[in-house]
Specification:
heterodimer, A: 112 residues, mainly beta, 7-stranded mixed β-sheet, 4-stranded antiparallel β-sheet, B: mainly beta
């Protein structure tokens, strides 16, 4: 069975640019969440979407936005990139309720 | 989220059991205890979760103290592939909003 897939795997952008990261959840999973992991730290929650609606938002600026499509795939958008946005961006999917999260292997974003 | 405390690191020998501790003294009666691990260059991977009684699955066992203020993840026979960062998490609002700490880095010696 295919797991959570993220694209691209690596990305290099310059300050001020915009980036779009993509995530395809496990088939049948309707919840998608996004996390940012800076080197040496644990992942930090950014967003959760369920049935195409935002269900949670972490402590991130408005430069970060996301959406979920009818097929439950999701995009994370970051505007006006800063050097501090360099990180591993992780997507996770889950079924509803108390089911565990299934993470992809992330997109490594480098901002120069 | 209720705070968890884990040692920074632990070392183990291959094929020996490993006990990874987690303290969560402010846990509430409805908080589940979740464990995830993250292998190098990969996303986190769910390991196990429990509420009150001990839990077993194919990956590990979770031993929960009677007062629920601590728990221990048990890997029965460590392999080199078990070298990873292990996170003990108590989700509150929803299982999708997990608060990861720094976790405990497990090294396995051949």
């Amino acid at each position: 069975d295919a797991g959570v897939t993220q694209s691209p795997t690596h990305l290099i952008k310059t300050r001020g640019q915009h980036v779009t990261l993509r995530c395809s959840p496990i088939s049948g999973h309707k919840s998608v969440s996004w996390y940012q992991q800076v080197l040496g730290q644990g992942p930090q929650f950014i967003f959760q979407y369920y049935e195409k609606e935002e269900r949670g938002r972490g402590n991130f600026p408005d430069r970060f936005s996301a959406r979920q499509f009818p097929n439950y795939s999701s995009e994370l958008n970051v505007n006006a990139l800063l050097l501090g946005d360099s990180a591993l961006y992780l997507c996770a999917s889950s079924e509803a309720g108390l089911s565990p999260l299934h993470f992809g292997n992330g997109t490594r974003l480098t901002v120069t | 989220d209720a705070k968890t405390t884990q040692p920074n690191s632990m070392e183990s020998n291959e094929e020996e059991p490993v006990h990874l501790p987690c303290n969560h003294s402010t846990i509430s009666g409805t908080d589940y205890i979740h464990w995830y691990r993250q292998l190098p260059s990969q996303g986190p991977e769910y390991v196990i979760h429990g509420l009150t009684s001990n839990v077993n699955n194919r990956m590990a066992s979770l031993a929960i103290a009677e007062d629920r203020k601590s728990s221990t993840l048990i890997l029965h026979r460590a392999t080199l592939r078990d070298a990873a960062v292990y996170y003990c998490i108590l989700p509150v609002e929803a299982n999708s909003k997990l608060t990861f700490g720094k976790g405990i880095t497990l090294s396995v010696r051949p």
